Amino acid sequence: MSFFSNLFNRNNDPKSIISFDVIDPIYSYLFNQQSSLEFKVKGIQENVIVNLFYFPGSLDHEEGNAEIKKAGFNNPYEVLNELYKKMNITTLTDETIQEGLEYDFIHIQFYSEPTLEEKKFFKRSIKNFLLFFCCTNSLEINDFKMLYSGKHFFDYTKGLLESELIDVNNPKNESEEIGIRDFKLVLQGICEYLNIEIPKTVELPSTENLVESEEVTEETFQEFIKLVSRENIKEKELKKEAKKLFKNFKKPAEDYYDMVEDHFAFFESIDAWNSDWKFDPEDAEYFISDLIGEDFTFDYPEETYSHDLFPYIQSALEKQNLELMSYNTNGDNYLFFIANKEDVGRILELSELTKIEVDQL
Predict the structure, then answer these.
(1) Cβ neighbourhood burial of 108 (10 Å; 0-12, 13-18, 19+)
(2) Which residues form a coiled coil (predicted)?
(3) Nearest-5° angle of CA 325, CA 328, CA 261?
(4) Which DSSP string corresponds to 298-309?
(5) How far apart are the first and last CA of the chain?
(6) Residue 200 falls within a domain, yes or no?
(7) Which residue in 95, 143, 160, 349 has a CA-CA distance of 20 to 30 Å to 123?
(8) DSSP tag of 8
(9) Does residue 106 share a domain with residue 25?
(10) What is the DSSP letter of 93?
(11) Helix (H, G, I), strand (E, B) or coil at 196
């Protein structure tokens, strides 16, 4: 692997977890032991995916070459130079390219909560952080630069080229700010997962163990039921439902559809609103009033229906420290329920643990 200089000060704030002294041992592990990781970090939706890729090899295959040609380039090195220009890293000369050296980079991908604006279009926000190594006033690697993208990389070359340089101290918008916040958690999680010691000068984003696995028990389902019902369930019924759901949880994968039917039946047994995908504001006001046990109204623009109403509903519910959520029916309908705002994060964690698919809206 060969490295080229950049024109910035060294990226190694001793207090920040986004620093070379943290990134370098992660890179060393990926390079020497295992180039791909996928695991759960507490507080992050779904699994975190970490890959060590390299130019030219990671793009030098039939599909990759087709993407490169489509983007208007002739080979992976030209794509790399385009990325280096964005990061103000010295580009490769023709003579250097002819040497056929390899240039590594780390791609870290995870999902964060969407912003209010993003919630209009999707339920989670993808975050891609691309780490490229370089050197600062030195012939040896001692620095890195990052590109960021909030899009899916369906065309990997295009995804790389559309990524933008990110300044972790000055996010451009709320989505980027959330991504940086969660990226710090992810880095801590990676270090814990790989048993990498974090420098004592670093201010950790979390005091918790972020990769501690949580055993799923009958009590896990009891906690889930209490939260999604806002504890509006009798003790006898709580234990009965938890026992049934836990029993289904332990069934083999081929019984998936039976398990989903039981999940659906459970939500219908508590205070929930089974709605077609298309509903109007009056429906929402009527059924949410029933769910919370008091009159509920909200302001909304004229000719606004269905999922476009979510931001206005949530804004009104937030005043009561509540949030509208839904069991994911994997169909063209919703199964809405109301949760206490402070319980939403834990509900989403328990959703992943219990395999009962719950969505933020």
Answers:
(1) buried
(2) none
(3) 125
(4) ----TT--GGGG
(5) 45
(6) no
(7) 160
(8) S
(9) yes
(10) P
(11) coil
- Count CA atoms closer than 13 A to 59's CA, side-chain side: 28
Same domain, 170 and 264: no
Beta-carbon contacts of residue 327 (< 8 Å; ≥ 6 apart): 263, 264, 267, 272, 335, 337, 356, 357, 358, 359
What are the tokens at 287?
A: 């059924």
Residuewise pLDDT in 10s, the chain (361 residues) = 444 444 445 566 778 999 999 999 999 999 988 888 888 898 898 889 999 999 999 999 999 999 999 999 999 999 999 999 999 999 999 999 999 999 999 999 999 999 988 888 888 899 999 999 988 766 677 889 999 999 999 999 999 999 999 999 999 999 999 999 999 999 999 999 898 999 999 999 999 889 866 788 999 999 999 999 999 888 999 999 899 899 888 876 656 666 777 788 888 888 888 888 889 999 999 999 999 999 999 999 988 889 889 989 999 999 999 999 998 887 788 989 999 998 988 888 888 888 888 888 8
5 in any annotated domain: no
Residue where one domain finishes, among candidates 160, 193, 226: 193
Bridge partners (DSSP) of residue 275 are 334
Percent of the chain past pLDDT 90, that is, above it, reads: 59
Q: How far is CA 173 from CA 150, 166, 186, in A?
A: 11, 11, 20
- 326 near 334, Cβ under 8 Å? yes
**Distance in angstroms (rounded) separating the CA atoms of residues 126 and 150:** 5
Cis omega (within 30 of 0) for bond into 56: yes
Instruction: Evaluate whether residue 139 is within a structural domain.
Output: yes
- When divided into structural domains, the chain yields a total of 2
**How far, in Å, CA of 243 to CA of 248, rounded?**
9
287 and 139 inside one domain: no
